[in-house]
Amino acid sequence: MNFSEELTKRTGEVQEIIYRYLPEEKGYQKTLLSAMNYSMTAGGKRLRPLLMQETYRLFGGAGKTVEPFMAAIEMIHTHSLIHDDLPAMDNDEYRRGKKTTHVVYGEAMAILAGDGLLNFAYETACRAFLTEPGNPDVGRAMAVLAEKTGVGGMIGGQSVDVESVGQPLSPDKLDFIYRLKTSALIEASMMIGAVLAGAGEEKVKLMERVAQDVGLAFQIQDDILDVTGSCETLGKPGGSDERNHKTTYVTVKGLEKAQEEVKDISNRALETLGSLNEKNIFLEELIRALTTRES
Amino acid sequence: MNFSEELTKRTGEVQEIIYRYLPEEKGYQKTLLSAMNYSMTAGGKRLRPLLMQETYRLFGGAGKTVEPFMAAIEMIHTHSLIHDDLPAMDNDEYRRGKKTTHVVYGEAMAILAGDGLLNFAYETACRAFLTEPGNPDVGRAMAVLAEKTGVGGMIGGQSVDVESVGQPLSPDKLDFIYRLKTSALIEASMMIGAVLAGAGEEKVKLMERVAQDVGLAFQIQDDILDVTGSCETLGKPGGSDERNHKTTYVTVKGLEKAQEEVKDISNRALETLGSLNEKNIFLEELIRALTTRES
């Protein structure tokens, strides 16, 4: 099997795990549950749970403790997409070729579906306490998840991004936004994979650095694709950053320099990863593939 | 000291604990952090953390493990107020006599401040893992918090409430909404207090029943005050339920019957509580006071 076939296979397996943790659509709150599942089943690369699982394997993890956390990280990511798309935020009507949640379910229900998914992520991760009561690694993983999602992570980054629309950005502030808005959840993914496999503090820190670079490279590649990609490959109209007067790596440094940086940063991630005794060839190929992707 | 003085004193102590867990307003995400603190410091009865602490004491809890959870439950409650007030939801401009978060900070920042507080609640509760790694009660408490906040609790109740605006409600559905939207967080408060004090499963279940009644009586009293109270005592204009064509206990059963039910339900709560060997006189008085309050 070549890498691309292997990726399809493993992404399918990851998706199957996520689907097992989705709520049943029943009871008076059925509309809410449908709205949550609508966005959870709208496709996507499942990159964060995939990175979590592969990092778990890298450090010899073989059990199922990681599975609720894989679902949880995807729920948090999806929560952020639903709220980012709202009229008061980016006001996007399409994502991944499908209508966004507030277009289908209305704005109030979309706000609640986002809230519901953020909270359901913790509800889902808490299942690991039932299977492993008293395992301190579960508590550590939960703390990483909350920290990287919150004001010092994804939500904090989004708030700075929202405030900065239409304003010139210093390189320092742009880096800050990318690190929080995109890298933080990828850091959570790889750190939690390491923590739950029993890796020590030093190795968890090293994975945080790897993930920060992976996230940065991923986001710059996103900026590049917004300029070079088509609606067909992206599942949404390209050129949205320019229309929204968004400052990105491409507008600040130019397309060519941005493309160079993607390569440099992902090489740095691979070097850091290579300094470990543990090896996971698929994880390395995945990181390489992320920076050459076309969608 | 009479009950009213004692309540003021204990509420002050609870507020001091909550304030210790609020985020520092610094860094690029300062606006977000200010918006979160703006609503957290806007007053309020601090009822949920107060009930949590008193239940903790009821079962002999004397340590500090409960404190991050006290802050967390108030953050979740405040999250729900910020999102409920949004233009897409109740569109309220005032709460507790102060402008609501989206009026002061704009809609996008208010959505993120609500998200930020919901997540910060978990981040804060996770601190208990640091002080007590491997204590399975902390994991149990976290699971209760997530379950009662989520689709089967507060957020689920809010979604049914939103869908029901302007529609006739069956008594069953009205009960469902009250139980999820209001009782669920009060159940979480009293259950977590019991769990962290080391109470067994049976006593935790009993406290869930007590709290469900307390929440129900509290919400019906809210409906009553919306009809009988003034802007001065409520901190917001009265009669909002009528203006918003909301179905409430008062519109369904009439004012007099609603007032009777508040008494019956709170008496039932006190009876259930009285069946325990453990006693907390202040907690009993607090439950009695909630149903005779005028604001």
Which structural class is indicated by helix and strand composition of chain A? Answer: mainly alpha
Give the distance, in angstroms, between the N- and C-terminal Cα atoms of chain A. Answer: 22 Å
Mean pLDDT rating of chain A: 94
Regarding quaternary structure, what we see is homodimer
Work out the number of β strands of chain A: 2
Ranges of chain A where pLDDT stays below 50 over 5 or more residues in a row are none
Order of helices and strands of chain A: HHHHEEHHHHHHHHHHHH
Name the helicity range of chain A.
over 70%
| Proportion in β-strands of chain A | under 5%
Number of helices of chain A: 16
Morphology of chain A: globular
Largest interface: A-B, 58 and 58 residues
Largest sheet of chain A: 2 strands, antiparallel
Q: Cα-atom Rg of chain A, whole angstroms?
A: 18 Å
Q: Strand order within the widest sheet of chain A?
A: 1-2
Report what the structure shows.
The structure is a homodimer. Chain A is mainly α and about 300 residues long. In chain A, about 70% of the residues lie in helices and about 0% in strands. Chain A contains 16 helices and 2 strands. Chain A has helices at about 5-20, 30-40, 45-60, 65-85, 100-105, 105-125, 125-130, 135-150, 155-165, 170-195, 200-230, 230-235, 240-245, 250-255, 255-275, 280-290; strands at about 95, 100. Chain A has a two-stranded antiparallel ribbon with strand order 1-2. In chain A, a hairpin with a 2-residue loop joins strand 1 and strand 2. In chain A, helix 3 (about 45-60) runs antiparallel to helix 4. The longest helix of chain A has 28 residues, at about 200-230. The mean pLDDT of chain A is about 95. The interface between A and B is large, with 58 and 58 residues.
